[in-house]
Amino acid sequence: MFEPRSYPVAEIAIGLDNRAQEFTQEGDIVAIRAPGIGIGLAEAKLWLWILIDGFELYKYDELINPVIEPFDATGAYDPPASYTKFDRRRYCVPLARLNQVLTIDLNRARDTADEYQPFYSLDQDNHLWLTARTPLAAEGLIFDKVLGDYI
Amino acid sequence: MATSRRSATNENISTFGAGGFGRDYTDVNTWAAATEIDLVSAAQSEVLELYDDAASFNQKIVVEAATTNASYFRIVRPAGVKGEASWQGHDGTPNNGVFFSISGVGGDAWRIDESFSSFQDLLIKAVLNDANPRSVYDVRGADVEIVGCIAFDSSNIGTSTLIAGFEQSEDNFCINCLALNCELDGFQIDGATDAYAYNCTAVNNGSDGFFNKGNGTCKNCLADGNSPDFSGSPAGNNNASGDGTATGTGSRINQTFTFVATGSDNYHLASGDAGAKDFGADLSADGVFAFDDDIDWETRTGSWDIGFDEFLAAIAFPVLSDRDVHSNIFGNRIVR
Questions:
Q1: What residue ranges do the domains of chain B occupy?
Q2: Check whether domain B11-330 has CATH 2.30.130, yes or no
Q3: B21 → chain A, closest CA residue
């Protein structure tokens, strides 16, 4: 018998092509946490924040796993020859996919002087969230670079 | 004076805290990602200063991939100055200060993989859920410094274990740290050639207090209530244990330690301690890591104590009468 389930909502930050970070590609998930009441001054400019659901709580942590664990059998840091600086982030949210939900002004999103958060309404004075859009289902939204498919 | 808290060259300081407080970051991972740059080429260091804006933060972090050297690296530390009202960190116990209480997630709690970077004066409790062995502080980078940090009441409720409060798997340093009531080891020390635990304390951990996994050195380390307190015969000297396992020149075994208040997790040495007080070696000119302070930023003086704390007798100020005060204020008036 089908039993409807409710999953905890999580707040994620994804990278933008704003050159602020050398090792993060646009769409990469860099942070995941329980929904907060607001964000920081730098965070409002550097990252795109969205709400997602669809996972058990302990599974969310996997979304910031690297493509390759750059450690040898003894646990020492030892990136393999094929390791690139972008292998650190296995999961991403392609902005093209997000654009199917809500049209995103990419120029504003990438502008590091613009506190542009299209999935929230942000109080410009204290950087607290005023309102947020409905959480997006993680399934079909988050792309797994290893498997080359959406989860 | 050589503080154990290394500062970096040209520090660019960002702030962390709860939303609504005007901090730069509310998530340590967004700071980590934003500062993953070539710091050497930029001739810049990145520092995240933490504010005690909330009862706790459920956040873990991996600091890796920035290009660093001995001058330019990353530091995470509380904001303020110890002993002043501005201080946001702990008081040498798990009871105060900015606090990371991590639960329900997998992976190591706080990890450094890049060289030279540093965690300073952090307070972390981690109840992880992972199928692999994990640690509270996983110190993988070479020349990394973990200073004045506390790991306590930590475990892995997944199908594996929390192997250590502090896991050193490269040539790096844990100085003036406390591991208290962690699931297995307090400190697990290894390295390519040598890793160091200086003036650290391990109390009531489920397994070894200090486990030398291969290339570990312990100096002035105190262990009590672990099973056993020391294992693997670490190199070093002037260690002390409640059981018979402390090794090295000048080490003391089967000691009874007197702490200030174990019931409230205060493992500072009491004035009457006869197990660790004044039995340490002076490391202010140590050839590997020279320093002269303790977990409370207090300068170690005279004969050093073993463990994270240097006992300092309270300073007695003279009691002045109203007449004394009046005389000092008005009696020394300059008359032209």
A1: 11-330
A2: no
A3: A126
